[in-house]
Amino acid sequence: MEECHIRATNLACRRGDRLLFAGLSLALGPGEALQLAGANGIGKSSLMRILAGLARPYSGAVERQGALALLDERPALDEHQPLGEALAFWRRIDGGEALGIDRLGLEALLDVPVRYLSTGQRKRAALARLIGQRTPIWLLDEPLNGLDTHAVALVEALVAEHLAAGGIAVIASHQTFALPALTRLALAEHVQ
Ligand SMILES: Nc1ncnc2c1ncn2[C@@H]1O[C@H](COP(=O)(O)OP(=O)(O)OP(=O)(O)O)[C@@H](O)[C@H]1O
Predict the structure, then answer these.
(1) Ligand 1 atom nearest to CA at 142
(2) 38 lines ligand 1 (CB under 6 A)
């Protein structure tokens, strides 16, 4: 896996006229994972978008080496295509072979239009796209939402394998995420 790190220094985030958090720093290297924890609306998704480079912090900076992939509630799969076609579209861009289809239990769903997928099926499809991106840095915003017990264990195993291969994971979740050596950052400690 390519060399990777992500560092955020003294971040502050403002939405509208509210300062959501300030003075937040983090640093992760190969094989490291961090869980962002906090109540609804505290700013977990906002922080993920800042780390992904999709939003600017009010102050502070993010520095990273290595490509990243963001998993959130928008899977970026064409709603009108069968799942197999929608995933193939990204495979042509990402390169390489299909990854994780069997493991994620998607083979029986490849002919089903994306718009008909259930919440959990949609999340598993988004995970297939994430794996296919082959990036060292994974930003996972609520990756366990809508998943059954079996799929939760599968996601935890996929992340553990990603870390063992030298990847990085940032996981925004208020649910428990079973992973050895997962450090935790409570956003509440950075609310002004
Ligand atoms: N464009 C915007 N303008 C103003 N406020 C916003 C905007 N987008 C989000 N917010 C507010 O910012 C706060 C943080 O939202 P965010 O989605 O980051 O929280 P979260 O911790 O991820 O929440 P959840 O656990 O419910 O997903 C919320 O109070 C939300 O209403």
Answers:
(1) 27
(2) yes
Query: Which ligand 1 atom sits nearest the alpha carbon of residue 187?
Result: 21
Q: Can you give the residue ranges of every domain in the chain?
A: 30-55+67-182
Cα-to-centroid distance, 26 and ligand 1 (Å): 20
**Does the pLDDT at position 192 exceed 80?**
no
Residue 155 buriedness (CB in 10 A; 0-12 / 13-18 / 19+):
buried
Average pLDDT over residues 7-22: 94
Q: How many CA atoms lie within 13 A of 187 on its CB side?
A: 24
* Structure tokens given for 144: 């366990």
Q: Which ipTM was obtained for this model? A: 0.92
Q: Reply yes or no on domain 30-55+67-182 having CATH 3.40.190.10.
A: no
> What's the CA gap between 133 and 131, in Å, rounded?
5
SS (H, E, C) the chain: CCCCEEEEEEEEEEECCEEEEEEEEEEECCCCEEEEECCCCCCHHHHHHHHCCCCCCCEEEEEEECCEEEECCCCCCCCCCEHHHHHHHHHHHHCCCCCCCCCCCCHHHCCCEHHHCCHHHHHHHHHHHHHHHCCCEEEEECCCCCCCHHHHHHHHHHHHHHHHCCCEEEEECCCCCCCCCEEEEEHHHHCC
pLDDT of residue 172: 95
